[in-house]
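Submission sheet (multi-component)
Chains listed below:
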Amino acid sequence: MKKLTFALLVMLIGLALIAGGCGGDGGTTDGGTTDGGEEAGGEEMVFRYNVGTEPETMDVHLSTGIPEATIMLQIYEGLTRLNEEGLPELALAESVDVSDDGLVYTFTLRDGLVWSNGEPLTAEDFEKSWKRALSPELAADYAYMLWYIKGAEAYNSGEGSADDVMVEALDEKTLQVTLEAPTSFFMSLVAFKTYYPLYQPAVEADPEGWHTSADTIVGNGPFKMVSWAQGQMEFVPNENYYDADAVILDRMIFTMVENESTELTMFETGEIDMTHTVPGQEIPRLEQTGELHILPYLGTYYYIFQIEKPPLDDINVRKALTLAIDREAIVENVTQGGQLPAYAYVPYGIPEPDGVDFREKGGDYFAPDVEEAQRLLAEAGYPGGEGFPSVEILYNTSEMHKMIAEAIQEMWKQNLGIENVTLTNQEWGVYLNTRDEGDFQIARAGWIGDYLDPYTFLDMWMTGSGNNNSRFSNEDYDNLLREVRMTDDDVARMEMMHQLEEILMEEMPICPIYYYTDPIMIKDYVKGYVNIAIGGKDFKAAYIEK
Amino acid sequence: MQYPKELFVPLTEKDVQAEMIRPSITYWQDAWRRLKKNPVAMISLVFILCLLLFAIFGPYLSAYSYSDQDFDRRNQGSSIEHPFGTDSLGRDQLVRVMYGARISLSVGFVAALTTFLIGVIYGGISGYAGGRVDNIMMRIVDILYSIPFLLWVIMLMVLFRELFPATGGGAGLYSIFIALGLVFWLPMARIVRGQILSLKEQEFALAAQTIGAPKWKILFRHLIPNTMGPIIVTATLSIPEAIFSEAFLSFIGLGVSAPMASWGMLASDALSSLRSFPHLLMFPALAISVTLLAFNFLGDGLRDALDPRMRK
Amino acid sequence: MLGYLIRRLLSALFAIWVVITVTFIFMHLIPGGPFQTEKAIPEAIKENIEARYKLDQPLHFQYLDYLGNVVRGDLGPSYKYRGQTVNDIIAERFPVSLQLGLLTFIIAIVLGVGAGIIAALYQGRAPDYITMFFSTIGISVPSFILGTLLMYVFAFRLGLLPAAMWGTPQHIIMPAVALAGLPTAFIARLTRSSMLDVLNQDYMRTALAKGLPRLRMIWVHAVKNAIIPVITYSGPLLAAILTGSFIVENIFAVPGLGKHFVTSIYNRDYTVILGLTIFYSILLIGLNMFVDFAYTLVDPRIKLMGSKE
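Outcome: structure written.
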């Protein structure tokens, strides 16, 4: 009896401890269902955004994910900053001088730049930071984004030294960079997070852990992070930002809720003001609310054909499969997110030097044609789908990929008479590995552009490229790619890239399906945000208007 | 005192019959008799049998296959043509629920079987032996418990793909069967062992030991039947746990290959469109709940029927 | 007694070592590695990464190196969450899962045992059916459905509770209830079943016939014996709940440890997989040892050290 009483007492104490402990926990949520933003009349203007996943790391050089890109965009700034169209605008750099041969860029920084803690920001911070990104010991994934700089690849591969990397701080305000070859999109590149400057004393004080706590992360962007705990991050305006007057918000909270449905519920209860995605099936209903926004996103969703594996080694088979898909139906019924059917590979949203969109100029390279598809299949030796060997579609775990694959499986059955298409779902790690090894026939893939130029979509199909899971190999293609890299004639480059795409669509190593969009929910009272098509949202000038 | 030999006459059949108050029946006959008297349990049993028939033969009776898509009829609620509505690709939900029954029921069956056979015997031996043997056996249980379930599943799926490429879509399901078989008997083993540890010191066990009954007989004839209560409860629990595990795997995307679907997969796919199309969640969820209810009531009935102390 | 304790500890350590080794082997058998990205990385950089994390070393070297660190309490750096160590991750996230888990456990034990006792005492009558019906709901509704429905009703429709996230007492309620559904139901049924076993025993009937006070009989004798299976189940249950339930934590955006159990395998984050497995293993084995001791408290006849022949 005594033992039971004792046990009960323990439980009661335990309960009390828990209840007490909870109340005093960190995190500054006021929970409940209050509205997110508030008027600036005496009350704080707070903006709540759900960034989706927890960042893997806040070290700008080690980071690879898009949620991190958005977070870093708020607290860091580079030499340039991307605007709504994805074009670079001068940011930390006041002016830039490019040499005639397009190889030497000389950046002049603005006057009086300081870090969020008031310390001066100089050109040397850039130099040291870029060299750190390239150091082999750091083993940064995205170090190759800096390989455009002369001497960078050698150093990163362990063959050269840091001194041979041609980036130099001539004085406190001047940074000079020499490139390997003329790179017309270099101004876009320096806006990328791998090119951000870093506050050296913090990095040197704690090389492994400086980026794991809000206290030691020192930035130079419109906001500074004041806390990172319990599943959310909090930001306040950085008073030392050179353009601090442009920042309107009083406070910004990023939550890290991964579950799409939960995120939507939180939006509908008013716990957050903007989501990072929407559950695909709810889109028709949400369109009615007027709060659904379909933002541009530079990417293409496609299927890869492993052209070394029969029957995909036959070009007629590839074309037949491609033409037999009703992309309109998929986009309207399955993905429902305002995506555009893709009849080429490079998506809309890349302007050429003359201002015309690359895709619009290029046009469509094929059109859905079931009869033609059937004819091609017959020519390949499988009239009406008879005798067609079994084919497997590989995709990584996701409801949407599954539905698209199911729809296409059915379309091939109906339109081509192919009965034995199987679907295989693999978990992410296994799936990537399988693709790399070429151990598949058809695999689902998506590619988001790294910068605003068709090259980011075309260079992956070079023979032997690590991203060329299709095993596509075409000498003309490779040669053209090389020419594009070498030339500094902007107009000629575009022309050549159109030719490259033409070769790609002729050979059909891939089956484009649709161009991505970014459907998200945004409350009516949120204004002033900038959506960047290659990923990331800029909240520098965001504000709440009730 | 000497008794004359003639007084000792063997009993005849008639004498024996006259002594008995009622016919002698075996343990199992008695259990069945008691089960029949339990209305709730019998209804559940009938339901489960119907469900099995439904799962096996139902799809042949339907006009639709589980993969027929129709984009014009997406996400519709109940109707005469589609009693369970249609899903996001226009497929008939009723057929898909029937197919789902096959998968979920077989998953549950495998789990219950392994739990019952392996778990009970292992736990019984461990508990009865005690001491060193018990320690070793329980440590093995701890080890198997600690290794992440997900690792097993992924590994098995990969293995299947390597060794039996022909199975294709089935690989997911077979891997789940084996993974479940490897892991699901562990709680049962522990519970049985715990019970046996306690029961073996009780009088009836000591009595059996005294009269020289062999150890295995004590274990299987006396101790385990007296543990039937927790055994049945745990075994019937393993079915929902298995179905939930499979649903969990579907939730994170490992499981049977599309377009096949288990109930767990149907339910977890339906979650994201809950507010737009509640019927997509309702039917699979109802199927899961009602079936599990039936198994539980049947389990309760079995427990009451198999308990030797409730013999009347 | 001391000898027994030492033997238990040694076998526990041995078990943990086996777990580490088997997990290590399995991890490396699965294709893929921690640094796979969809966008391929140039060879030179791949080599840098592998060198930095010693992945280019032969496996047995990595294994021994890891063991050496573990013995010193260093579970290594996370490969995916750079800059964080496994110890950091556990230290930061375990308290959250702990809070959620303890509340869940208390709900399950208090409601479960209570319901089971009532059902057994009133066997065959209304209270039995009612309590068993509710407890069966817990077993037949998967936690992700229960959680989603709770969120829909209480956060969206009624606006009484925050939909998700963590930090205040209101945030714990729904996840704890969703998580407690199955354990409560199971404990209720287990309790009821073993209570009935005990109540129907001859010695109970004798005692009641002799006129001993009923309430005392129930508490002192019936419950004590009936609780053994519940205690058995509590060990692993507590270990599992404490280390976080992936689904509930995912749905309610609870920053606990559960997510890492699953995502670390996806990410092939070897150190996190091993670290979490060791952590879970220690908890499990520790709790099981405690459970065994609890047996002796409840039933003095149970001898753990082996019955004398």
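Remark: DSSP finds 13 helices and no strands in chain B.
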